[in-house]
Amino acid sequence: MSLFSFFTKRNSAPVARERLQILLAHERSVIGGRSDLIATLQEEILAVIAKHIAVDREKVQVKLDRGDSVSTLEVDIEIPTPSGPARIAARG
Asked: Where would you find the membrane-spanning parts of this chain (predicted)?
């Protein structure tokens, strides 16, 4: 790397891509294979809910927030409204 190339401006897209790749590699190493765990949890949660309600898998979002001492798994599922009269059955 010469002194002149140090002062030239690099395109922002390659720099952003490189930073993202570093960040993703770091997250994968910290999580230690937890991405498979998240996918497994998503499938199992959907299977349980699908027993009772028809769910469009395209309308499911899973988000993992990692804190200092606690990690939070957030699952957003869009539940369709019934086409007929709304009935709520209490199970006991």
From this structure: none
Tell me how far CA of residue 30 lies from CA of 25, 41, 91, in angstroms. Answer: 9, 19, 42
Provide the token pair at 92: 């006991």
- Residue 65 inside a domain? The answer is yes
Max mean pLDDT range (8-12, 19-23, 45-49): 45-49
pLDDT of residue 10: 58
* 12 in any annotated domain: no
- Are the C-beta atoms of 26 and 52 separated by less than 8 Å? no
Q: Please write the tens of the pLDDT for every residue from 40-72.
A: 777 888 888 888 888 888 888 878 777 777 778
Q: For 2-28, give one letter per residue: b (16+ CB within 10 A) or e.
A: eeeeeeeeeeeeeeeeeeeeeeeeeee
Domain assignment of residue 59, given as a range: 21-29+55-80
